[in-house]
Amino acid sequence: MGGDHGPAVVVPGIARVAELIDLVGVRYLLHGDRAQIAPVLERCPAISGMVEVRHTEATVAPDAKPAHAMRRGAGTSMWNAVESVRSGEARAAVSAGNTGALMAIGRLLLRMIGELERPALVANWPTARGVCAVLDVGANIVCDAERLVEFALLGAIYHRAVHRRGAPTIGLLNVGAETQKGHEDVRGADRMLRELGFGLDYRGFIEGDDIAKGVVDVVVTDGFTGNISLKSVEGFARFFRSELRAVLENGLLPKIGAFIARGALVRMAARLDPSLVNGGPFLGLNGIVVKSHGGADARGYAAAVRLAIELARSDFAAEIEAELSRFATLSRGAQSQDRRSIA
Amino acid sequence: MGGDHGPAVVVPGIARVAELIDLVGVRYLLHGDRAQIAPVLERCPAISGMVEVRHTEATVAPDAKPAHAMRRGAGTSMWNAVESVRSGEARAAVSAGNTGALMAIGRLLLRMIGELERPALVANWPTARGVCAVLDVGANIVCDAERLVEFALLGAIYHRAVHRRGAPTIGLLNVGAETQKGHEDVRGADRMLRELGFGLDYRGFIEGDDIAKGVVDVVVTDGFTGNISLKSVEGFARFFRSELRAVLENGLLPKIGAFIARGALVRMAARLDPSLVNGGPFLGLNGIVVKSHGGADARGYAAAVRLAIELARSDFAAEIEAELSRFATLSRGAQSQDRRSIA
Fold first, then answer.
1. Residue A116 — pLDDT band, cuts 50, 70, 90?
2. Cβ-contact B217, B159 below 8 angstroms
3. What is the pTM of this model?
4. Set of chain B residues whose Cβ sits within 8 Å of the Cβ of A243
5. Fewer CB within 10 Å: C terminus or N terminus of chain A?
6. ipTM here
7. Quick check: B257 contacting A, CB < 8 Å?
8. Contact, B304 vs B278, CB < 8 A?
9. pLDDT tens-digit series, residues B40-65
């Protein structure tokens, strides 16, 4: 029921995924208002056999505070979707609804892995070399050095699970490449990553413009900076596309030129369309929860569903648990050494 | 001597500015190595009468630490340029060199206005509605609520001086629009701006994608977030342009289409070229110092020089001083009231 469009996007999104040959056999539970879902489902008869509607009229409001969603959320469509993961009935949950509420309900019902405090929200972003994972993009507003190191570990495991290739490269977002740059937390995380290693391919500080260059596979930052810088890029990308369109529709020559080159222009728009890389998982929960952009269209929602399926088919949950306990041991060791060297 | 290209960009940059009818009569002091400057000047005979070279071979290294530049910088080209503003010989200084060093030398030689601690660095960014001013974009890594409020005041005065129109709108960059969103400092600044007003047209929190929409004239944020989000956008803009070029050069139809529409495409590239809005002043110094992008070309450098001239011709320095003392009185009043209400 979530996002700007509700079932009008969720159902056609699933229909797109169901057309993909390697994703046949996946089944879907749709939590929400049957009266709103049924008419959309009727227009997608191909998926009627794979879909089961779990009726509820209650929903989480888009502007509900997370604490309120936790206390009063039981029985809402969002709650029931996450609950179906907890009970083992579903392998993953996808929602385009209220991000803060989804995270809060996820934490409450699924609990965090190990000693993690809060999940990290990942964004997948198109770059000159493919796609990179940026985290956190909004779940953790204030992050100390240890949180940033956890993000590096979570991001590396996530990237391996989704892209199925070894040791991704990691960069820590900062205002400059030199070790003295930035604030205390980012410098502390840099030191820990350099000294303890954690088996990561850590490349040090990167700057904002390095993200689009694709210099690393995983970009680590706090949720405040990550959220704002990626939304800034989204806003600019939308502006750039609308300027391009305006310029090509203004005058006869541009119109003719755009008509002749339209295939290429459509391909480019597709390549740079953030909705194609829609879908950000919350990392660190005991279970898979993927957040879709609230404004995503059916194609974007399909991308989020595909991502959830990829993650459900990988063993990244078990890997996260193993890596994090290794990290806890390593950083406890480093802390007790610190104390000794001070004494 | 600063930036990636030194005199090779500075001299032709000035030549571009000198062609503009309303900027005739401006004179330039070029601080740097005569042996490097003279050959470039020979190729721009039109400006030889407006330019005076002040020879020095010493420069500030691009990677020099600010503290080092302050202790050892005397006699470098950057130092001499700022010193010429301090002595009153020049009305403004422009440099494409080391940002941290320029700020440190600016603070040391020119000193801050009133009780300000550090200058704020402004970026001018193209938006769907024109250009907005974003500050701080890197001079102040950690900012408390009062610093953010100072940025709002400085940004408003700057915008009025450059665009010559009344009360600019102000937005505070955050991860959401609701008052409970974000960290303590940004919420504190929001409260102060709402309650004390300061005569500003404050519009509350804005999100990253609101920057490109142009919803406000002045975007306020801390230097860490500002630097990273704007560099992220620059990186993406470069990526977008290179993708567009690649797509239009790949295949016969796109090539023909691009050739026919080339006028429109060149106009768009120009409109979205960050170098056209190059030039960020340090606000809060007793004197005008404008930082050009290190990688700017002659056109970009010309934009920074024009901005410096605009500021020198406005009375924004005096206005900053008056507004800041008003702010100090207001916020001291508010603090003592706070103390009373606690007692």
1. confident
2. yes
3. 0.87
4. 268, 271-272
5. C
6. 0.86
7. yes
8. yes
9. 999 999 998 899 999 999 999 998 98
